[in-house]
Design a protein that fits this description.
The complex is a heterodimer of chains A (229) and B (586).
Chain A lengths: L1 H9 L13 E9 L18 E2 L14 E7 L10 E6 L2 E2 L3 E5 L4 E5 L7 E3 L16 E4 L5 E7 L2 E11 L3 E4 L5 E8 L1 E9 L2 E2 L5 E5 L4 E7 L9
Chain B lengths: L1 H23 L1 H42 L2 H12 L5 H17 L7 E6 L4 E5 L14 H8 L1 E9 L2 E12 L5 E11 L2 H8 L5 E6 L2 E5 L7 H10 L8 H4 L3 E5 L2 E9 L9 E8 L6 H6 L13 H39 L12 H32 L9 H5 L22 E2 L36 H4 L6 E2 L23 H7 L11 H17 L8 H19 L3 E9 L2 E9 L4
Antiparallel strand pairs in B: 1-2, 1-5, 3-4, 4-5, 6-7, 6-10, 8-9, 9-10, 11-14, 12-13, 13-14
Helix pairs in contact in B: 1-10, 3-4
The chains are: A mainly beta (229), B alpha+beta (586).
């Protein structure tokens, strides 16, 4: 699991350069993940239906890659946003789901050898027009909390979800369900879990972060990964 | 003629029906041809879909075999553990992949891609061979293969369409785990298209929107109609496009074609990938075009109902001829024979009742005309009698002799006047020698005038020809031994009888016998000449009598009349003499 964890942290969006170090704390936690749902049916079937291989069981959906966890201030404080880097690696994003704070600069870097024309379905003007050439970046700043589905019409399989929230405390989840927030100021927070295309439908978890020390959180995700309507 | 008309109507109606059928028949045939063409396209389209599906199954099996090759499992497992892929590893894996490709029999893939379990391209074989390290995960085919599925898809790369298949690469030594995936690609080429349609008798083309990717026939089809159909297709089972879609007309190099389009599955669907089965549209067949394509074998006795056609023709011909004979020829022949009998005088009128239909009408018309002529003749005779005075009994009348030659026969009865002599008009001075012997006496009085039939109108003497003569001085035929008094001009003398001529009159040897009738005529003639101021020098009774005798004999020989009556009259201021045959005996 080391490579996966490395990639997860590489894509981590939390950059706490501007946080108040004196009052910062670390929040670590673990999501109690139910069994992964079955893989969705083939969207682009060929002449034949896909068939299982006879040698090993088919792998389920990589749930963790499609999840993020956020800590939102219970007092509604708006915190200074951080820059978010999102790599476009070949035929997919480095992570299918990425979170960003409102006002944060989202930088998409094309590490593939193919130019892409990315557009947010919810707001075509979110991403500056024009292709993102190989190795070239393109940045933008979302101004409101929203879920954006970003894709390239020339590559229907290329899809990414940008989750814009009102907090900079955003963490990815590894394959075991673990997540880690660093530099969280003291206070009360609501912990929310995002999966694939929406927020997990569960009671909000309140996290009290002290002035010092590590805060540990354990969150149980309902079976079937239900999403809020 | 009624049946003939009915028959003619039926034959004409049958001919019109046959002509209509001949002109209309190509249209159902054309529709049947088009329907058959459409059915053929649908069948071919379905067969091509089946062939492509079968080909996909073979390719999936090939990908599975490729992925199970032991030589590639270890290198991919090692690559999956590496944080970064390098050129050396790429070349090593590529070499292994190339070697595996060489072992494939039959249709070899156009490319192979070896992917580690992270979705990174470790090596490419035969296509972009120097590219590696990019993330191919994200494409549904690769994601499914990395998850453990075998499947196929259609990719479009650089304007080329590929049938691609993928299989997971699984390390079978414990612990069993996925170490990557293999993707094989077969390009859609003209050769593949030709192979697909080989036995089908149609052509197929593969398209991406308005771009032609490959085809069994090098032809520039108008893709707009096909794009229009594809654009309207959303959702549904792509495999049923061949049955659900209808063939469409399109052109290629101004030549008409009929095409049936069906979407291609996989990722290429979103790039408007489809294939089209097409066939050249046959020329529309009309009656003329149908005749042009008739073969000699079509008219062979085994293929064409010559017996029926010939029998129908013969029946129609026989029916027509029979009806014509029955209703036209036979009645006409009968009428002709009847008219011949009428002309010969064997009958007085045409038998109207024996002639049906129009022929009876003709007979009636002729009979009506005969009756009219009779009435006209009577009227004319009456008029002449008023002008010329009554004709002597038994005479044909002066008018007969003034007219031209009588017809040999006339309708309405015996040709009593058929042998009527031509006009016998002469002047004494211009005549030949006179007969020395008087004509024989008729033993009976002059025949009575024929009461039937009246003379023909055409025999009416032209008044101009008569030059409006003064009332004729009719001299009746002489009575035997009772010469009429010379002063009795204009009155008829009793005719001489045969007995009187032969037995009654004693012969005188010394002196020629003087016929009192001739003498009477002579005296009247001389008297008239004197009246007209003409000279009578040289006019002797003997010459006069000789002339009368000869003229009488000639008339009697020609006409068969029994006697001749002579009439003196004036014409153009000169004395003239007429001879009138007396036919009947009264």
């Amino acid at each position: 699991m080391k490579p996966l964890r490395v990639s997860v942290f590489a894509a981590s969006v939390v950059v706490g350069g501007f946080a108040d170090v004196a009052t910062a704390n670390t929040v670590v936690g673990r999501l109690d993940l139910p069994p992964a749902p079955e893989r969705p049916p083939v969207a682009t079937k060929g002449f034949l239906d896909r068939v299982d291989n006879p040698l090993a069981p088919v792998k389920g959906v990589n749930v963790a890659a499609n999840m993020i966890v956020v800590l939102e201030s219970a007092e509604g404080k708006v915190e200074t946003p951080a820059q978010v880097n999102w790599d476009l690696a070949g035929e997919s994003f480095s992570r299918p789901v990425v979170g960003a704070a409102v006002g944060a600069e989202v930088v998409i870097k094309n590490t593939s050898k193919t130019a892409r024309n990315l557009v947010a379905a919810e707001d075509p003007k979110l991403i500056p027009a024009g292709p993102i050439n190989p190795t070239g970046p393109k940045s933008f700043r979302p101004t409101e909390p929203k879920i954006y589905n970003i894709g390239d019409k020339d590559a229907p399989h290329l899809k990414g979800v940008l989750v814009v929230v009102g907090t900079k405390h955003i963490a990815t989840v590894d394959g075991a369900g673990r997540f880690d927030f660093g530099d969280v100021p003291e206070g009360s927070y609501k912990l929310r879990v995002f999966y694939k295309s929406g927020w997990i439908d569960k009671p909000d978890e309140t996290v009290h972060v002290g002035a010092k020390g590590k805060t540990e959180v354990s969150v149980k995700v309902p079976a079937g990964y239900p999403l809020k309507k | 003629m009624f049946l003939s008309k009915i028959f003619f109507f039926l034959v004409t109606f049958a001919a019109a029906v046959a002509l209509t059928v001949a002109l209309v028949m190509p249209r159902p045939a054309q529709r049947a041809l088009v329907s058959e063409e459409h059915r053929r396209l649908k069948v071919a389209c379905g067969v091509i879909n089946i062939l492509l599906t079968d080909d996909a199954r073979n390719r999936v099996e090939l990908a599975g075999s490729f992925a199970r090759t032991s030589e590639i499992i270890g290198p991919l497992d090692a690559a999956s553990s590496a944080d970064k892929l390098d050129d050396t590893r790429m070349k090593q894996v590529r070499g292994i992949g190339e070697n595996v490709m060489k072992t494939i029999e039959g249709r070899k893939p156009d490319f192979a891609i070896l992917i580690d379990k992270r979705g990174r391209v470790v090596a490419r074989v035969r296509l972009d061979e120097n590219d590696y390290g990019d993330l191919l995960a994200g494409r549904p085919l690769v994601d499914d293969a990395l998850a453990g599925y075998l499947r196929d898809d259609l990719w479009v790369q650089n304007g080329t369409m590929y049938f691609v298949t993928a299989s997971p690469v699984i390390k079978r030594d414990p612990p069993v785990e996925y170490v990557g995936a293999v993707v094989l690609g077969h390009a859609v080429t003209n050769e593949l298209a030709q192979k697909l349609v080989g036995p089908l008798g149609v052509d197929v083309g593969f398209f991406l929107g308005n771009d032609t990717v490959a085809g069994s026939k090098t032809i520039a089809l108008d893709t707009k109609p096909m794009e229009g159909v594809i654009g309207k297709l959303t959702g549904g089972d792509l495999a049923r496009d061949c049955q659900a879609n209808e063939p469409i007309p399109l052109t290629a190099s101004k030549e008409p074609y009929t095409a049936l389009v069906a979407r291609l599955p996989g990722e290429a669907t979103q790039k408007k990938a489809y294939y089209s089965v097409f066939i050249k549209r046959p020329d529309e067949i009309g009656a003329g075009a149908t005749l042009k394509i008739v073969k000699q074998s079509d008219l062979a006795p085994g293929n064409f109902p010559w017996i029926f056609v010939g029998g129908t023709f013969l029946i129609a011909l026989a029916g027509g001829i029979g009806l014509m004979f029955w209703e036209a020829d036979r009645p006409l022949r009968r009428l002709t024979a009847d008219t011949v009998r009428l002309a010969k005088g064997e009958v007085e009128r045409l038998a109207e009742d024996q002639h049906p239909g129009k022929f009876g009408s003709i007979a009636r018309s002729v009979n009506i005309h005969i009756d009219k002529l009779g009435r006209d003749a009577k009227s004319a005779k009456k008029d002449l009698d008023q002008l010329l005075g009554p004709a002597p009994e038994g005479s044909l009348g002066t008018i007969d002799l003034l007219a031209t030659a009588l017809p040999p026969s006339r309708p309405g009865g015996p040709a009593t006047a058929a042998a009527a002599p031509p006009p016998s008009e002469f002047r004494f001075g211009e005549s030949g020698p006179m007969a020395a012997k008087p004509p024989p006496r008729t033993p009976t009085p002059p025949p009575m005038r024929v009461n039937t039939p009246p003379p023909f109108k055409s025999m009416t003497p032209p008044l101009g020809q008569a030059s409006t003569p003064p009332p004729p001085i009719t001299v009746p035929p002489p009575m035997a031994s009772t010469p009429a008094p010379p002063a009795m001009l204009g009155t008829a003398s009793p005719p001489l009888t045969l007995d009187d001529d032969i037995l009654g009159a004693p012969s005188v040897d010394a002196e020629p016998e003087v016929d009192p009738y001739f003498k009477q005529v002579f005296d009247q003639f001389v008297g008239t000449k004197k009246t007209c101021g003409e000279s009578t020098a040289g006019l002797t009774f003997e010459k006069f009598a000789e002339k009368l005798v000869r003229n009488r004999d000639e008339l009697m020989a020609k006409t068969g009349c029994r006697d001749v009556r002579f009439t003196v009259y004036m014409k153009d201021g000169k004395a003239a003499l007429k001879a009138t045959p007396v036919k009947d005996e009264g």
